[in-house]
């Protein structure tokens, strides 16, 4: 699969089309076999007990997988999540950003399947494993962001 959007293009896309997450999430790297995204954790992402809440972990995985798919198909803004599964495996480390490492497992014309492992920055063991399926609409001027 060829890379058609690099990290800079994906971050610009997020800032323009998804400003609600662009302040917390950034694409760190787009590589031939994976995408790496960062979630900048602050107080609004914490739940009682001082750990990162599940909704923030899910949001990171969803945005990261979406961007991994867009990195291969281009800025199709109307690609949507059709299925999601998250296994929360351990408590995220306090005071650390989260990183998602994504792999595309299948990229078809109308469906894409990908997975993400979510880590606390600097830690070896993942805090969550996510699997998601996206529906990809036919590319038209209406659903292309560029």
From TrEMBL:
Which UniProt keywords are listed?
Hydrolase
Keyword Nucleotidyltransferase set for record: no
Sequence ranges assigned to domain Thioesterase in this UniProt record: 49-123
The record, for Gene3D superfamilies, names: Hotdog Thioesterase (3.10.129.10)
CDD domains found in the cross-reference section: PaaI_thioesterase
Q: InterPro entries, per this entry? A: ACOT13, HotDog_dom_sf, PAAI_dom, Thioestr_dom
- Extract the coiled-coil ranges from the record: none
Record family assignment: Belongs to the thioesterase PaaI family.
User: Which protein, by its recorded name, is this?
Assistant: PaaI family thioesterase
Give the species: Paracoccus benzoatiresistens
Q: What is the lineage of its organism?
A: Bacteria, Pseudomonadati, Pseudomonadota, Alphaproteobacteria, Rhodobacterales
């Amino acid at each position: 699969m060829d890379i058609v959007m690099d990290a800079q293009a994906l971050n610009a896309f997020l800032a323009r089309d998804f400003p609600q997450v662009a302040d917390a999430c950034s694409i760190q790297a787009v590589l031939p076999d994976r995408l790496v995204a960062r979630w900048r954790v602050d107080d609004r992402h914490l739940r009682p007990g001082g750990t990162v809440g599940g909704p923030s972990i899910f949001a990171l995985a969803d945005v990261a997988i979406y961007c991994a798919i867009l990195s291969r198909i281009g800025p199709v803004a109307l690609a949507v999540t059709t299925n999601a599964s998250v296994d929360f495996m351990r408590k995220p480390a306090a005071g650390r950003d989260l990183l998602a490492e994504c792999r595309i497992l299948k990229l078809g014309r109308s469906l894409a399947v990908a997975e993400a492992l979510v880590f606390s920055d600097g830690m070896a063991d993942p805090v969550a494993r996510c699997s998601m399926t996206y529906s990809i609409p036919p590319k038209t001027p209406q659903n292309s962001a560029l």
